[in-house]
Design a protein that fits this description.
This protein is 26% helix and 21% strand. It is of the alpha+beta class. It has two domains: 51 residues, Multidrug-efflux Transporter Regulator, Chain: A, Domain 2 (Orthogonal Bundle), CATH 1.10.1660; 30 residues, no CATH class. The strands form two sheets. A three-stranded antiparallel beta sheet has the order 1-3-2. Strands 4-5-6 form a three-stranded antiparallel beta sheet, with no helix packed on it. It is globular. The C terminus is likely disordered.
């Protein structure tokens, strides 16, 4: 897990909505900060762990990157295909095109 997390990272890790994480930060329940000149917030992993302990939220295994981005096509044409985890009932893996920008 990263040392600095976005509100989206925290939300996915805890299984809550991103607005819930933002509300926790705004209400002072979770320590976080705004990126200067934007409305984006960040949270230190250590502060998240302290928040979890203080609020009785059990720690779980470190999350793997559930949505790896890989070049698509045989030549990696600069677009990316975003893998989505398989369904619980053993269904096929779903893929969605991400066409905003190129894979670094």
């Amino acid at each position: 897990m990263k040392d600095v997390m976005t509100t989206g990272d925290v939300a996915r890790f805890l299984g809550v909505g991103q607005q819930t994480v933002i509300r926790w930060i705004n209400n002072g329940m979770l320590i976080g900060w705004l990126i200067p000149g934007s409305s984006h917030r960040r949270v230190y992993r250590s502060d998240l762990m302290e928040f979890m302990e203080k609020n009785g939220i059990p720690q779980r295994a470190e999350p793997e990157d559930e949505h790896p981005v890989q070049p698509s096509g045989p030549q990696g044409n600069g677009r990316a295909t975003k893998a989505v985890r398989k369904s619980d009932d053993g269904g096929k893996e779903v893929r969605a095109r991400v066409s905003k920008g190129k894979v670094p």
